[in-house]
Amino acid sequence: MKLRILGCSGGIGSGAHTTAMLLDDDILIDAGTGVTNLSMEEMIKIDHVFVTHAHLDHVACIPFLVDTVGFKRNKPIVVHATQATLDTLRTHLFNWHLWPDFTKIPNSNSPYMRYETLSLGCVINLNERKVIPIPANHVIPTVGFQLDSGQSSLVFTADTTTNYPFWSVINKIENLRYLIIESAFCNQKRDIAGRSKHLCPSLLAEELENLERDAEIFISHLKPGEADITMHEIQQSMAKFNPRRLENGQLFEF
C-alpha cells in the first residue's frame, strides 16, 4: 500500500492544504483542500472516500470532486463514514441548498455518489487492503483509521485529544509501523486545544506515554503561522519518540 499526503495542515495558505490523503490511486482518507493537488485523471480513479468526521477542513472537496468527475465514471464514488457523519453530510452539505444531492444525480438508480455506513472496529476489505475505524475524541463524532496492508499498518488519529481507548486499540496492532497524530496548537494555546478537543505539545507528550509499540511518528494538523514553534515544543519534550512533521507530498509505503 502507498499513502500520499495531499494535505495535512490545520489551515490554508501558500503551500498549505487541509487534510486529504490518497491511498494507492483509488481511495481518499478525508477530502480537505489537499484534493486540489490531484489531476483530473487522478480524481477519476477515486472509488472511495473514507471520512473521519464532518468538519469542513476534512470534507470540503467531496462536493467538488463528485461534481468534477462523477459524469466521467461508470460507478458512484462511495463515501464511507459513521452514521452521525453521514447524517451531517446529508442534512447540511448535500441538501440542495448548500450543494446538490449527488446521491440522486443523475438519478437515484445510477447516482454519482453513494453512502456507506461504517462503525468502530469493523474491517472494510478492499482488494486485500484493510481500512479499520478506530476511536477518536473530538467535539463531534470522529474516527481515526488503521490502514493495514497485511505486512504493516499505518494509523491516522484524525482530530483528537486525550483518548485512552485509542491507545488500547493501537497497542494491540502487532504490525504497526507509522503513526500520524495531530497537534493543532502550541502550548500557549493549551486552553483552546482543550476546549476544541485537539492536542498541543504538552498534551501530546502525555498521550504518547501510552504508546507501547515501536512506530515512526509524524505530526499533522499544524496551524500555519505557528507550525514551527509547535514542532520545536514537540521535539524538545518528546525527543525519545523522534517525532517528525508531516509534509505535503510525503509518500508512505507499507
3D structure, described in words:
The protein has a single domain, classed as Metallo-beta-lactamase, Chain A. The strands form two sheets. Strands 6-5-4-3-2-1-14 form a seven-stranded mixed sheet. Strands 7-8-9-10-11-12-13 form a seven-stranded mixed sheet, covered by helices on one side. With 254 residues, the protein is of the alpha/beta class. The mean pLDDT is 98. The protein contains eight helices and 14 strands. The protein has helices spanning 40-44, 56-59, 62-69, 83-93, 164-170, 190-196, 201-208, 227-237, and strands at 2-7, 20-23, 27-31, 48-50, 77-81, 113-117, 124-126, 129-135, 143-148, 153-156, 176-182, 216-220, 244-245, 251-253.
Low-confidence spans: pLDDT under 50, at least 5 residues? none
- Assembly type: single chain
From the alpha carbons, calculate the radius of gyration and give it in angstroms.
18 Å
Q: What best-fitting shape do the alpha-carbon axes yield? A: globular
Can you give the mean pLDDT?
98
